[in-house]
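Lecture notes, unit on binding sites. The following record was shown on slide 14. It pairs a sequence with adenosine-5'-triphosphate.
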Amino acid sequence: MRLRALAKINLGLDILGKRADGYHEVRMIMQTIQMYDVLEIRRTEKPGITLSVNVPFVPTDERNLVYKAAQMLMEEFQIQEGISMKLDKFIPVAAGMAGGSSDAAAAFVGVNRLFHLGLSEEELMKRAVKVGADVPYCIMRGTALAEGIGEKLTRISPMPKSYILIGKPGVTVSTKMAYENLNLEAIEDHPDIDGMIRDIQNEDLYEMTKKMGNVFEPGIIREYPVIEEIKNLMEENGALRAMMSGSGPTVFGIFDDKEKLKKATAKLKESKLARTVFATEIFNRNGGYTNDK
Ligand code: ATP
């Protein structure tokens, strides 16, 4: 079985406060894009889980979210056979694109299908949150509002068709560092998440992009000005808007025209500001893995 684990971007990311348990209360608009890792899963007679990954710096044991997800389902259903998994990563790692979470989502879907466990999307999502707050969303895919710690999901209308340019600079930001650089009381610019949802409903890409915002961005840009440079380059070359995704450092630009996307992609490559440059489009079908073969 071969599954595509699609990456996400955050069209809007707001943080409302810190809960008593230390987690932050968020409000984010999530959007799946057509950039993906590929997970292959096979049944083996020999019990246990084996995993190989095409990049050396991602763990292949229990620390990998794919492993955790598969193990969780196999233990619950007392599956006696084993599985062998091969993960090909194309989504940049630790980049704010939920790569690991999406891989875990693919493992949940894959194990459910492979062993005919019969779990619905909702039942999978309930288990997925134990692996990570973003994993239920990665099962659901499409356009959604995420609240709580990211696990409370509400489906919203699909985002209007648009093109996406991804630029990830060669710097690393941990989510922990992003929170450390954030002074909750000092946030002046909260994105208008509700306004964005209305714009999406009205299929108004232009109004929506005007309202985009990510409260992590100023703190991370202070640390890594290259992020601002990538944003500027994208906007000077036709992006309606460019913004950092999640806790960074990946920047995405939104385009309404394929030719402009092509031109900006070439400019970004030429500039050498980004280590990963990838031109793609949004995944604007709301509806999980059901349409995937
Ligand atoms: P998010 O947008 O949810 O913050 P991210 O893009 O910041 O995600 P990931 O790429 O998911 O972060 O991975 C962060 C860390 O998780 C890595 O440093 C890696 O060691 C570990 N990890 C565990 N499983 C995976 C996986 N399948 N793919 C990538 N990293 C993984």
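Take-home: The mean pLDDT is 95.
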